[in-house]
Structures are given as C-alpha cells and as structure tokens.
Amino acid sequence: MWSRIRSWFVPPDAHRSRLTKLISRASVEFTACMMFHFIGSISPTPWANGIALTVLVYYTAKISGAHLNPAVTLTFCLLGHTHPIDALMYWVAQVTGCAAGALWIAGLVPGLNMRNAPSGEFQGLSGCFTPAAALTPFQVFAWETVSTTCFIVPIFSVVWYTQHKNGYGNSGPLIVGLSLAANALACGRFTGASLNPARSLASPIVFQCPYPVYSYVLGELLGGILATLAVVPWYGISRSAWYR
Amino acid sequence: MWSRIRSWFVPPDAHRSRLTKLISRASVEFTACMMFHFIGSISPTPWANGIALTVLVYYTAKISGAHLNPAVTLTFCLLGHTHPIDALMYWVAQVTGCAAGALWIAGLVPGLNMRNAPSGEFQGLSGCFTPAAALTPFQVFAWETVSTTCFIVPIFSVVWYTQHKNGYGNSGPLIVGLSLAANALACGRFTGASLNPARSLASPIVFQCPYPVYSYVLGELLGGILATLAVVPWYGISRSAWYR
Amino acid sequence: MWSRIRSWFVPPDAHRSRLTKLISRASVEFTACMMFHFIGSISPTPWANGIALTVLVYYTAKISGAHLNPAVTLTFCLLGHTHPIDALMYWVAQVTGCAAGALWIAGLVPGLNMRNAPSGEFQGLSGCFTPAAALTPFQVFAWETVSTTCFIVPIFSVVWYTQHKNGYGNSGPLIVGLSLAANALACGRFTGASLNPARSLASPIVFQCPYPVYSYVLGELLGGILATLAVVPWYGISRSAWYR
Amino acid sequence: MWSRIRSWFVPPDAHRSRLTKLISRASVEFTACMMFHFIGSISPTPWANGIALTVLVYYTAKISGAHLNPAVTLTFCLLGHTHPIDALMYWVAQVTGCAAGALWIAGLVPGLNMRNAPSGEFQGLSGCFTPAAALTPFQVFAWETVSTTCFIVPIFSVVWYTQHKNGYGNSGPLIVGLSLAANALACGRFTGASLNPARSLASPIVFQCPYPVYSYVLGELLGGILATLAVVPWYGISRSAWYR
Ligand SMILES: [Ca+2]
Ligand SMILES: [Ca+2]
Ligand SMILES: [Ca+2]
Ligand SMILES: [Ca+2]
C-alpha cells in the first residue's frame, strides 16, 4: 500500500502513457465541472459563477489546462492547442461532469427532483436557463454567441502569457473568472448567461427544463469559433499546433 | 529590554524548540480565528467572510500555514502535511479563538449578551448558524459536507503551488477567500454557510443559539475528509508525510 | 496557406514596419473598445465596467499598451509615452470601436434601434450618458474632469511599475479596472460616470441620445491633462519621451 | 526648461536631501488622501472605499510607503519603521489632504457647502461620520478601536513580505484595500467605519458635522497601538528601527 501511495508522488503526467494522461486530465475536468455547475446554479448572483470558475481554474490549470467549457475547448482546438481527440474526451467529461453537478442539485435542494419540472421555493436554482420573455430563439442564439466570444477572448491571453511566462501568468485564474463575471452581468438579464454548452445541457439532462437548449448550445459553439477572430491576428496560433 | 526586543528579530521558527514553534503557530491561529469569527459574524454579506479570510490567510500564511478552520486542518492532516499532535493543538486554538471572537460580539453589539439568547435589532449578528426552515438536520449535514468539500479542494492547490513554487503561489490568500465566498454565496440560503467547525461551535459556547451544532460540525468534518478524494489522484499526498 | 499561418507566429511587432505595427495596435484598441462599450453599456452595475476593463486591458496590454480611452492616450502623450501621430490613430480607433459596440447594442437589445431615441424596457442600456437632474452642464463637466483625473492617476503607476519591473507589474490590469470601478461608484449617481471620451461619443453616434456630449468629452480630456499634475512630480515623464 | 524636465527623470529619492525626500513623501500622502476622502465619502458602498484605497496604495507605495492613515503611521512608528518626525509630517499631510478632499465635496456636490450643515438630496455624501443611534460614545470608541486594529494587522504583513521579498509582496495593495473593505462591511452599520483619524477629522473641518469626532479619533489611534500586539510576537519590529 505504501508503495502505491508513494506512486502518487510522481509529478503529474510524468512516466505515463498518453491514454493515462488523457484520462487523468479528462477526470479533473469532470470533477471541476461537477462542482462548477452545482455552485453556479444554486448561487443567487453572477459573481459566484465568476469566482467559482476562478478557484476551479486554479485547481485544474496545471492538470487539464482548466477549460471547463466545451466552447473554450473548441477555441483552443481551432488555435492548435488541443488535439481533436483530446477535445472530444474533454467535451464528454465536461457535459457529464455538469450533469453530475445537476444530480447534486436534485439531491440537495428541496423541491427539485430528477425527471420533474423544477418547482417550489427554490425552483430558480435548478440550473435550467430561461431567456427574457422579449427574446426570440434567434436573439437568444445571438446573445450567447456574442457573450461567449467576449468571454473567451481575454482567456486566450491567459494561455498566451502562461506559455510565454510574459508578465501576467500569475493572475490567470482571476482573469478567467472576471471575464465570466463581466459577461454574465451584461448578458444575464437576456439569456441567464450560460456561455457554456456543458452547463446549458446539464440540467435539461436531469430535470424537465422549460426552454429548449439548441439556441444556447449552437450560439456558444459559434462564439467559441468567432473568438479565434480576435485572437489570431495578434496572438497567432500555437507554435506546436496539432495540424501543422 | 533592548536585548529582549532584539530577540524578536529572530526569524520566525528559527532557533526554537518544537514546542515553542507549535505554541507560536497555534497562537497565531487563535488570534486570526478571533478576528475572523468577529468580522464574519457581524458582516451583512458572505463577501466580507471571504475577504476577511483572504487578509487573515495573508497574515498567518508563513507562520501557521493559515488553516483557520478545523476541517482544513483535518484535510491537511490526512494528506500528511500536519502531524496529528499539531492538528489537535490547532483545533483547540481555532475553537477557542473563534469563541473569543464571539466574546467580542457579546461586548460590542447592543442586545447581544453572554449566556443569553440573541435578541433585539442586531440579533442576526450573533454568529449563531440557523438553517432554512425547509431543511431537515440530515439535509443541513449534507449541505455543510458538500460545500465544505467544494471550499477546501481549491485551497489544497494553493498549498501545492506554494510548495512547488509553480506559478500561482502569489495569489494563494486571494484564492482561499474567493473559494469561501463562492461556496458561502451558494450554500448561504440553506445553512448560513459555516463550512468551519470552529465557527459552528464558537457562538453556541457564548450565546444560547437556537439550533443544535452537531449537523454542522459533523458535516464539515466529513467535508474535510471527502476533499481528499478530489486532491489525491492529481496532487498526491505530502512528499514528507508524517505517516510515511 | 500554411506559410501564411506560420507567419502569424512571428512575435507581435517584430519584423514589421512602423505603419504595420501602428495598424496592428490601433486595430486591437478598436476590437477591445467595441467589446468594452458593449459590455459596459448593457451591464446594470459599475462593477461590470471595471472588470470588463480589467480583462480587456489584460487582452491588449502587450499589444497596444491597453489605453482603451482617449483621455488615457492624452495623458500618456503628454508624459512622452505615446507619439502624437500614434495618439491620433488611437483616438480614431477608440471612438469608432466604441461606436461599433453601440451598433451591437442596436442589433441585440429589443427596443433599441439605430437613429432612434432609446425606448422600451431596456432603454437604460443604450450607452447614452445622462446626468442627475440637479446638475448644471458645468457641474457635469467638473465631475467628469475630477473623476477622470482620479481614475487615470493610479493607472500611470501601472505603466511605471511595468516599465521598471519594480514589484507590482503583475497586478496592473486589475488595478486599472479597480480604479475605474472606484471612480464609477463614486461619480455614477452624478453623471453616470463615463470618464472616457470614446464612450461618451459612441452611443450618440448610433442613437438619438437626449443629453449633449460636450460637457462630458471636454471634462474627460481636461481630466487627462490634470492627471499629469499628480504624476510628474513623483514619477517624472518617459525616459525616452518623443519630445525630448 | 528641458534640463528641468530631465531632472524629473532622477529616480525618486535619489540625490536628494533628507528634507526634500520627506516633503516629496508627505506631498504624495496629501495628494492621495485628498482623492481617498473624496471618493470614499461620495461612494454609496464600503467596497468603493476598499478599492479606492487599493489603487491609491498602488500609486503611493514606493514613494511614501502608502500609509494614507494616521493610525497606520502610528503603528509603523511604534514598530520602528517610521521616524517620529516623519510621522508628524505624515499626520499633517494626511489630515490636510483629507480636508482638501472635503473641499472638493463642498465644491462638487449640490447642497453641500462649506461651513454649513450637510442638507438636501446628497447630504449623506458629506464625509461626516454618524454612528447608529443605539451606540453610546464609549461604544463608538470601542468599535473604532477594534475595527482599526483588525484593519491594520494584515497590512503589517504586507510591509513585512515586501521588505523580505517573501512570496506575497505583489498582492500588497489589494490586501490593504480588502482589509479595509472587510472591516468597513463589518463595522459600517455601527459607526460608519472611518478607521482613519484623518478621515474622521476632515469633513468636520469643512462642514458642520452633527457628531463629535473625539470618540472616533481616540479609538482609531488606540486601534493603531493595539495592532502592534498582534504583530510583534510573530513579525517583530523593524530590523533598523529608529529607536534601536
Ligand atoms: Ca430533491
Ligand atoms: Ca452586549
Ligand atoms: Ca434593435
Ligand atoms: Ca456646494
């Protein structure tokens, strides 16, 4: 047993096969997404969303790269930082992780139960996203696109400064959380501000959410694609892009 | 007298016996917990909780390791960072420190007096934790377990980055406070968000608090134990664990 | 095509003509100002203003110097850091960028349409600045002057610490955003707290805003000039000022 | 003229007499206190107080040590960091600086005029401190004492880490502001949370404030003295204390 415990001291990702490393990285994405969807859904303010992301980015940064969001993974894949196979594994881990967080909600919040529509005193904490009544599905799609792009662009700078050890790396996790908070404060009253396909999908898997998810998920993925437009002209793509 | 003052220049923990060092460390835990329970209890928002923890972690980090919470001490003990004897001393210092902070409340807040039930205009500032009416004691236990786990997991990363001087150490005290704020914002409306056995026990020692503490304290200690599950697979235990 | 992609790897501003570099820098000011006016206008709190600025300063700092505000550019020009020709290009990029952000608002917010006066449920999100009824135009001018000065003074320290790598450079983007948030919280109830000529001009270009912009823009530019008074005696001007 | 401008390039405090340096340092304390009392008084939330302090500490840290508060200067004097003559100059600069900030309030806020009692829509923004009705003058004294002590203790750690370049210096200005915010959130509903003799004295110099200042000022000075009790046992006094 002691030799097994001792093996845990091996620095992360050393002496491991590519598959083992990928499982380790995807598992930490699962764990952090589970906590993130739970905390983010039951909190009464977009600030909690932002700072929960900050601390979970801190937790996962050196293990998985702290994506915690399929749209972020898509941006990093297009920019050459994440191989498509890894990206797929991350997507699965992020969506199932957030769905596991929705199960915590079902277990812990009185009145919210699996397979039911949210009801009662705490129904607003279900993690289901519902847009403002004034918005058409296309406007929901457009808001999620624009806000996801604005959210991801500064995150890319974090990756760049961390890789180049060029001055601002230390504040990386804080910047990621503040970027989410700023855009969630702006977009919140329109769509509830998911900006994350895994979070959009998670609670509808567990509860009977009232609003369809496709406007959200498609908008967020397009937002991840458009974010590259504000990155490539100034930061370029990865020096060791998988498609080079 | 000057030679005595000069002796204070001795760098902390140098040229001292193990016992003197332990007393010094436990005393700073006492002092910081006293301030923490005082500020945290009389503040109207979970944010003050979080930032009070940040500044007090900053104050104590290099002296005691800035646990300020018996559940954190338990996690660090299980992960090999804190010897069980030190952990016991820390527990005593944390609980008595928070109780001393409750005495400050009794002395300073009009209407709150020792041995009485909190009453009057400021009764909500007593530091007693009372859960939402909808929750059973088991649900209180479960909420405190889950939220304490979510609170402690990113804190462990702070320890790891500090020890490995691996990029993010500088932002450590901020991350600890933000992790408390995020989880207190999420869990607050259910249990009041103690997430700390010393804080749960402190005000009931001084005031006649209406709700029993066992659901809180047991949940928080279990949360400290479960936090290891999200740490060990990726960060391992201490390289110099006391039980190796 | 690959060789073109490869050329993106060239580090920013290397192997480029002065004109190409200036276009690159002005373009990132345009992009960030577009996002900044959009997020800042549709957010319900000055905090979102501040943290949106923080993350966009992080995004643009090493490319354009992260001015994102013609008054800041004016201060830096007077202090010798920005050449007047570059300053003019930055001014054009900042005003047109913010106006492009106002176009996003026109496109995305129900009830806000180009060339119309803002109306309906979301009319407060138009990005038009309207002062408190009690204020004369001269008082609006004075408030914007004073608050812009207070906003810019600590920003200059960020530039100085970054150039001298003297201790605090890492926290630069955070300080810039916090300085905006502090002054926007203070000045907000009087003028709405623009503190930025590009933001003052942007929405009146796109919408029929009810209040004239001259008190705002002149006050902010004077604020940028006065900020030098609290900088020069202690920090001096640039070691390589363009006018030396 | 150019040679005069060039002389501004001389790094701060180099090639200057002790008197010139002291005037330079006291002047920056004056300037920052002026801005601090202005922003802090007209802001509707203790948060603006905290972040205004953060950015002004950033502005003054390497010039004057960023005291901006006579109680902080007193603590640093007792701990050997500030010579009593410098401390007196700082006290004068801090009180006159805050009073100058109160003059800005008189000039800019409709309804607040020099020598008058604050009145009208914005009378709460005068910078006069008024305690909760339930408190006796002695309780006001006690609250300001305790909260000033709690505020200053973590600030001392900032000085220590900065001097020893021991890990956390970068986050210094943020910690100072967060410490003020935490204690202002806690103490605010009781005394309005001045925690600063210069701020307590400033507005009564300019306006007819309704509540006498002695409970505030004496409490804050005692708080500065008591803060040394939580510093000396673990951090000691200055290695080059003026009284050694
Ligand atoms: Ca349930
Ligand atoms: Ca009492
Ligand atoms: Ca429209
Ligand atoms: Ca007046």
Written description of the protein model:
- The structure is a homotetramer of 244-residue chains.
- By secondary structure, the first copy, chain A, is mostly helical.
- Chain A has 10 helices and no strands.
- Chain A has helices spanning 2-7, 18-42, 46-64, 70-78, 84-108, 137-164, 172-191, 197-206, 214-227, 232-235.
- The longest helix of chain A is centred in the middle third of the chain and has 28 residues, at 137-164.
- The first copy, chain A, starts with a helix and ends in a 9-residue tail after the last helix.
- Chains in contact: A-B, A-C, B-D, C-D.
- At the B-D interface, helix 1, helix 2, helix 3, helix 5 and helix 7 of B face helix 6, helix 7 and helix 10 of D.
- The complex binds calcium ion (CA) (4 copies).
Would you tell me the overall average pLDDT of chain A?
A: 91
The helix-and-strand class of chain A reads mainly alpha
Largest sheet data of chain A: none
Q: Would you report the number of β strands of chain A?
A: 0
What binds here, in terms of ligands, is: calcium ion
Name the chain pair whose interface involves the most residues.
A-B, 45 and 38 residues
Along the chain, the helix and strand elements of chain A come as: HHHHHHHHHH
Radius of gyration of chain A: 18 Å
Query: Number of DSSP helices of chain A?
Result: 10
- The fraction of residues in strands of chain A falls at under 5%
Low-confidence stretches of chain A: none
Overall geometry of chain A? globular
Helix content of chain A: 55-70%
Oligomeric status: homotetramer
* Intertermini distance of chain A: 44 Å
